[in-house]
Specification:
Layout (H helix, E strand, L loop, with lengths): L2 H12 L8 H15 L13 H12 L5 H22 L1
Helix pairs in contact: 1-4, 2-3, 2-4
Amino acid sequence: MGLKEEFEEYADKVKTLTKKPSDADLLILYGLFKQATVGPVDTARPGMFSMKERAKWDAWKAVEAKTKEEAMNDYITKAKQLIEADAASA
């Protein structure tokens, strides 16, 4: 299985978690997912009244120095941690 296939598999697995991850974990996943699929941030930072979109943008911006492959690997690692934690709490 290639990196892209493994990344897509874990992106699907994360959606099936029984316990919702923390907001911080969700932002980490979001930033890594966007970096892996889109690349560096290509939009302007949302305004201060769009707090949710601004937090998501900041999470993506924080990882923009990573290559798509690094972002995929980091996403898979984080997803595995969350899946293991979810299984342990079940």
